[in-house]
Amino acid sequence: MISGLCKSFQKISIQKGFGYSNSLNYTTKKTATQLFTEKTIEVPVLNFNDKNVIENIQLSKDVFSVPLRVDLLHRMVRYQRAKSQQGTHQALNMARMERTNKKPTRQKGSGNARKGTNHSVHFRGGARTFAPTMRSHAHDLPSKVRKLCLKVALSTKLAQNKLIIVDEFNLETHKTKELVSKLPKDWGRTLLVDSKISDFLNRSSLNVQKIDTLPQLGLNVYTILQNDTLVLTKSSVEDLTARLTESD
Q1: Percent of the chain at pLDDT exceeding 70
Q2: Dist. CA 51–CA 228, nearest whole Å
Q3: How confident is the model at residue 146 (pLDDT cuts 50, 70, 90)?
Q4: Are residues 89 and 137 in contact, defined by beta-carbon separation less than 8 angstroms?
Q5: What is the average per-residue pLDDT within 122-138?
Q6: Which helix or strand (DSSP H or E) is residue 245 part of?
Q7: Three-state SS for 9?
Q8: Is 163 in contact with 157 (CB distance < 8 Å)?
């Protein structure tokens, strides 16, 4: 999993004069260089139903205008994947084998090889030499680095024209058909983020493989990189900005 995702990091590149290949152009038509050098970032807020522009909002440069750092994204993905690993692997070594330690045969005169026990590591059904033990695979990553990684992921999506801001996910029913009809096919695999996931949004997205939903508190780098398009509500943008700009 890690090696496959590391290969996909090579596709994440924001070069000088980066041109947008996305035909939607819902977010901004500026190049990545302009995006990282301007004092303010102004993006449109769309109506979730008809995709018409309602208003424009200004995004914080401290959150949505951080230069690309592939090394940080790689560290964050390794951190998340290692922390989610169960670590329940275990095999029997000599200490865990619950068998008799009696010498099976006498030392000399039997014609057999010398044996001190029947469950030694070189016998069939015996113990493992370097047996795996149950442990946690998690490793530490400073909170400031984790915040910076999330900022890099959000800024990368914006620079790639794959971050879309909507007013709200106003669904009238819990039916999957209604949600799918409101998502353009050009968005590909989509991550929908709101301050709080409503019951209609949660139930309507459960049966769709290419739609993920997360509250803004659960937004993470690995899920952002897994999806093609990131859709944020206006309220979730405000909450994210407040959370990522507060001092540690």
Answers
A1: 84
A2: 18
A3: very high
A4: no
A5: 92
A6: helix 234-245
A7: helix
A8: yes
- Asked if residue 44 lies in contact with residue 53, where contact means CB atoms within 8 angstroms, the answer is yes
Question: In angstroms, what is the C-alpha Rg of the chain?
Answer: 27
pTM of the model: 0.79
Q: Between the CA of residue 63 and those of 144, 168, 194, 245, what are the distances in Å?
A: 13, 21, 17, 7
Q: What is the 3-state secondary structure (H, E, C) of 189-213?
A: CEEEEECCCCHHHHHHHCCCCCEEE
- Sheet strands side by side (includes 190-194): 53-59, 41-46, 163-166, 229-233, 190-194, 211-215
- Output the CA–CA distances (angstroms, integers) from residue 219 to 38, 92, 245, in the order listed: 26, 40, 15
The alpha carbon of 107 is separated from its chain's Cα centroid by a whole number of angstroms, namely 60
Contact 152, 76 (CB under 8 A): no
Six-digit token pair at 118?
Answer: 């029947």
pLDDT tens digits, one per residue of 162-203:
999 999 998 888 999 999 999 998 899 999 999 999 899 999
Query: Can you tell me the distance from the alpha carbon of 176 to that of 210, in angstroms, rounded to the nearest whole number?
Result: 12
Distance CA 120, CA 189 (A): 53
Q: Please choose, from the candidates 153, 150, 2, 191, the residue with its C-alpha nearest in 3D space to the C-alpha of residue 85.
A: 2
Mark out the alpha helices in 20-140 (DSSP H runs): 32-37, 61-64, 70-84
